[in-house]
Amino acid sequence: MKKNIIKTHPLPLIIPRMIIGLIFLSEGIQKFVTPETVGPGRFAKIGFQNPEFWAALVGLVEIICGVLLLIGLLSRLASVFLLIIMAVAFITTKIPILSEKGFWSFAHEYRTDFAMTLLLIMLLYFGGGNYSVDKYITDSGE
């Protein structure tokens, strides 16, 4: 069972892991460094009840999962948590743009999130790759 969760494939997945890991690590840190624009202030503007709690929780998950992806540990599990964050962000911030401003404004605003979502799906499917702690664990456990 453990082997199936962290088993990885031989694709060069270090680049997508670095991209996603660094973006989420940065975004998580920013929720604490600039709380009025990215943290609780942003969550309150979107309409979250108890924005301080949600901003801190999301920030911590982004930091932890970002670091996990950077080292390639539990890459699939980290991808699941980050995909949940991406889905909530899509529903709360991008769908209103689509309904209020139309498709092209939505497409412009969603371009980075779309790329990150696809990279997370790729990591969910393939795992951390050859240059990951996941690979080391599965190779040494056989």
From TrEMBL:
GO terms for cellular component: plasma membrane. Its main location: membrane. It is a multi-pass membrane protein. It holds the Pfam family DoxX. The keyword Membrane applies. The chain crosses the membrane at residues 12-33, 53-73, 80-99, 114-133. InterPro entries: DoxX, DoxX-like_oxidoreductase. It is found in: Cell membrane. The keyword Zinc-finger does not apply. Keywords: Cell membrane, Membrane, Transmembrane, Transmembrane helix. This is DoxX family protein. It comes from Chryseobacterium bernardetii.
